[in-house]
Amino acid sequence: MKNKWIIGLLALGSVSMLCGFDSAETAESILTKVKENTASIESMTSSFDLNCDISINVSDETTTSSIGIFVGADYDILATLDPLATAMTGTITLSTFGEGESIDMQMYMISSDDIIDTYVYTEDSASDEEGEGTWEYSSISTEEYDLQPLIDLSESVDYNKMVTWGIDFTLASEAADYEGTECYLLTAVMDTSTISTLLERTENWVAENSAESSELLEDEDINELLDLLDGLQVKVEYYVDTATYLPVAMHIDLNDSDLNALNDYMAEYAISEEDTSTIEIIINDLSMDYTMSYDDVEEITVPQEALDAIAAGEVEDLEEALENAVADAV
Fold first, then answer.
1. % of the chain residues with pLDDT over 70
2. Over the stretch 106-125, which tens digit does the pLDDT of each residue have?
3. Mean of the pLDDT values across residues 33-41?
4. Around Cβ 276, how many Cβ atoms within 10 Å?
5. Phi/psi at 201 (5° precision)
6. Cis peptide before 83 (omega within 30 of 0)
7. What pLDDT does 256 receive?
8. 236-270: buried (b, 16+ CB within 10 Å) or exposed (e) per residue?
9. Could you say which DSSP state residue 65 is in?
10. Are 93 and 124 in contact (CB under 8 A)?
11. For 126-135, how does the pLDDT look when each residue is reduced to its tens digit (9 = 90+)?
């Protein structure tokens, strides 16, 4: 069941997201108009880019050794509302110890009648020859898994609710230019207290809308992680077109985070009491960029090669693959 929620959240995340600059506008009025105007959107094209560039420095009294770790993701996402469908294609890149690896992925989620079909293709440069990746497939009945609670949650989010979650946007006093588009620029800063509040709201929502239980805030590992991330700072820049009041871009970064608690934890468990060495994680760049355009997708179709692989019985079960991926991540 948890894997079905993952698929649903991916789908929802892909789908949900008339004058010049008006100095009389506020963050609340702009976000209210954004919600009103996005309600009529029928399709969306977006791109997602992730840069995770960090270094782990181990120092003694004389020398410092550094391990560089890079994870990058670059995805294009198409989405339609009627019928509900998404297509996501892109590449994840990983590099450390001088070795690199890339994973190409395609995901298609198509709804028809009472069925949601999901197709995922992965091709790993470390283990697959070019063009010889694996297709995975699952079919879910909407009677067994209902997307409506997630849609209702998305529609219920407004400015006041975000403030209660600890997400308080500030409107820049002047217009911002985003790739030639005049925009309102809204910014916000979140920390671990915001994350705790979001987890609490998530628990409440799951309890009200699902037969499953959520005990995130009672999980020792979650609380320990929040303690380790004390000093985390998530900066958000949100660009809204002044002409249409539609979002055009979002930038998120954690580059100003204080990782002292995490560094102390690593040093305590990785270095013996007799060793005076220190360990420090350095964030060179940890950021995400998301861009959006609207009503430019006519139809989303599944590649014929995926349908042929299913017909030939050459696919793996997606739920089993997700379970294995979650286990590997843990």
1. 77
2. 999 998 878 888 999 998 88
3. 90
4. 10
5. -65, -35
6. yes
7. 93
8. bbbbbbbeebbbbbbbbbbeebebebbbeebeeee
9. E
10. no
11. 777 776 788 9
What does the pLDDT read at residue 279? 82
Whole-angstrom Cα Rg for the chain: 22
Determine the length of the chain.
330
Are 94 and 71 spatial neighbours (Cβ–Cβ below 8 Å)?
yes
- Count of other CB atoms within 10 angstroms of residue 195: 18
Mean pLDDT of 309-323: 71
Mean pLDDT of 133-151: 74
* Cα–Cα distance list, 143 to 11, 116, 146, 325 (Å): 17, 10, 6, 26
Model confidence band, residue 71 (pLDDT cutoffs 50, 70, 90): very high
d(CA 288, CA 317): 30
Q: Tokens in use for 48?
A: 């997602």
Q: Which of 48, 111, 47, 91 is nearest to 296 (CA)?
A: 47
Q: Is 217 left (phi over 0), alpha (psi -120 to 50) or beta?
A: alpha
1, with CB counted inside 10 A (0-12, 13-18, 19+), is: exposed
194 pLDDT band, cuts 50/70/90, is confident
Burial letters for 142-152: b for 16+ Cβ neighbours within 10 Å, e otherwise? Answer: eeeeebeebbe
